[in-house]
Amino acid sequence: MLVCSVIERAPAPRLRDARLATKATHCCWIALFALVLLLADACSRNPTAPEKPISYVHPPPNGFFPWPQHDPAYSFAEYNQMMEQLFIINNFGQYQGGTTPESMYLHDGLDIILENETQLFSVSDGHVAAILGSMEGQRAIVIEDSGSFGSAWMYAHTDRFSVQPGDPVTQGHPIAIVSFPTGLGHVHLSRVSLREGGSWNSLDDYQYLFPDSFFFYPDSEPPVIETPFYFYQNKSDTEFPRTGSTVVSGEVDIVVAIRDPGEHARDSSGFGDRLCVGRIDYRILRDDHMLLERQSFDFRWSIIPRTPYENSEVAQTVYKFWYTVQTDPPQSYSQIPSFYIITNSSGTEGFSILNPGTQTLCWDTREVGNDGTPVFPNGSYIISVAAYDHAGNQTVAADTVLVQNP
Ligand SMILES: [Zn+2]
Asked: How far is the CA of 403 from the centre of ligand 1 (A)?
């Protein structure tokens, strides 16, 4: 979804730890709808010529955009301090939701923890396409790229805008301050693509792309994959009982608990390390023979659809609802995994919109080959799952299941 942000990833009806209580600012659809309905004035003027470039005393590494909190005047020491404090608590594609499956959605950008009132600067050249929202804490500024119409950066939970719709903006130009007074201060930064024929004034016309690759943040820690995996009947909440050796049959959804830690995925106390991975692949083997190799979700090429309803449908396709897998709310929102339904992806070729139609995909243990013989005759199989983060760090984990079809 869009301007919302759950700073805590959310499914707890009761918050068990004091730390959570301050961090768990649940974003709500109501706020979103208010934002959609109560759009403030937006771009009506044509952009004028860009201003002069602003030079950074200590620019980001070559090929990367500056972070929005990077003041161009920062010295080397100030830049290093900013990078030391960089904490991305939620990222693109991450599971968010409450206590109903319908409340699930995919986080569409990067939540960068920053104190309220922190000055933000444009990460790119462009012009102000819109300033949205009327509710404090739910306002956003959208800056469309220069020379690339239909692509923009949206900075949500912002206020005190120093530019107006239509104004040209260069990289490093001050644009707004962080304003999320109801919870932990942060800017929600999204890479947006406007639907064809859409308007920057309508959030329903927005689609969201993977933003990580625009920015530099070291990450040397590979994803964490939990074993054993979970196995469900396809498109169902009926689980194949997890015993010593789980027995499956028919059409199977493979569900794997994964999270991505990293140097900038946690704060100085160690809270965090629960980000969405970049990409997942899996293989099914028998006696060292690979019978199936598939790409699963690849968030680097995924587009998160625009409306809350579509987003929720897609979230229920990518992830198993927390309470389907776990009866209790998480003990802590730190280091919690998400339950990826890895068999629900058709793989990715170029950019594609995540699509609830792929819910029907599964591991069909009754599949037969061209000669009519079963591809997965009754017996033991190894499921091997590889997860990669945006920096390419990789983890592989495996589990064994017994196929037993009548
Ligand atoms: Zn957010």
From this structure: 41
